[in-house]
Design brief:
3-stranded antiparallel β-sheet; alpha+beta; Aminoglycoside 3'-phosphotransferase, Chain: A, domain 2; 20% strand
């Protein structure tokens, strides 16, 4: 199955509406055996998503009963870089499950381990209702819950140095104007944060509407691939608003969204530069997200 999917992605085939693929086998597929052992369902139904073509590409498989009940999701990486990401998510979810306050908010790892020459992560499903695209009380409450289970204070200079190291890995591929912009951001943020500390803790890394579900006013989050335990606490809230404004609303004037700093707040500048680095590392073709962050940075650092 993985070989077939890898070949399909190399051909850049994305499918079409209501497309279907039949995989025939005289014996149960290894994936079917795994699902049966974990869930007890002997006739699982699979729905596959190939994802976008970049270095972290993976197949996400929705596992269902014949009745349509979702049992969980399997992530099967298609590249070496994606394999490391999926390993990280499995480890992160296992660690987060140790916090009782988070267990109703995150997927549970049903199975994780080596799979042929790759790695596989099978995680539980969550609520069916999609999360809102507006930043609401449910988002604030979720982030507060996450911050309360793990808090740490880090020197502002240390955060700036971490972002600078990441920027140095990507700036060589950029033009002179962008390199100067990044250097200006780092200099300004580092100067403003000198002698101060920043509250840090669990950071989701892609806190956005498409990774959220909601039930009874309580937020549930998928996709912890980019998560960490010691990033600035404000970054997830910044990211949600930037993603909504830059990718969903796409305002023509590209002014900062409501809830984002209107001036060059150093924590926001470092978030923007760090997020820009992540996009350049993962998917340089994502021009909408990249250009919106550059617009905000230019406005903040004349």
């Amino acid at each position: 199955m993985k070989g077939f999917l890898s070949a399909v992605t190399r051909m850049n085939w994305f499918g079409w509406a209501r497309s279907g693929v039949v995989l025939a086998s005289k014996e149960p597929l290894a994936l079917e055996t795994l699902v049966a052992g974990v869930t007890g369902e002997t006739a699982p139904v699979f729905a596959l998503s190939l994802g976008r073509p970049h270095r972290y590409r993976k197949v996400v498989i929705q596992i269902m009963r014949p009745t349509g009940e979702i049992l969980g999701y399997i992530k099967l990486p298609l590249t070496e870089a994606a394999t490391e990401r999926v390993r990280h998510e499995a480890a992160m979810l296992a660690s987060l499950w140790g916090f009782a306050d988070l267990r109703r908010r995150i997927p549970r790892v049903l199975h994780a381990g080596e799979w042929g020459d790759s790695y596989i992560l099978f995680q539980s499903s969550g609520p069916a209702e999609s999360g809102p695209t507006e930043f609401r009380h449910a988002h604030e409450e979720f982030l507060l819950t996450v911050q309360n289970v793990c808090r740490v204070e880090k020197p502002g200079r240390a955060i700036a140095a971490e972002v600078e190291r990441r920027w140095q890995r990507v700036e060589l591929e950029l033009d002179r104007e962008l390199r100067q912009l990044g250097r200006g951001v780092l200099a300004r943020a580092g100067q403003q944060l000198d002698g101060s500390t920043i509250r840090c803790g669990i950071h989701h890394g892609d806190f956005a509407p498409w990774n959220t579900r909601v039930e009874g006013g309580r937020l549930f989050l998928f996709d912890w691939e980019s998560a960490s335990f010691d990033a600035p606490a404000c970054w997830d809230a910044f990211h949600f608003r930037v993603q909504v404004e830059g990718l969903l609303k796409k305002k023509r004037d590209r002014r900062p969204a409501e809830g984002l700093p209107k001036s060059g707040k150093p924590e926001f500048l470092l978030y923007l530069l760090n997020s820009l680095c992540q996009l350049l590392e993962e998917d340089p073709a994502d021009r909408s997200g990249i250009e919106y962050r550059l617009t905000l940075l230019r406005e903040s650092v004349p």
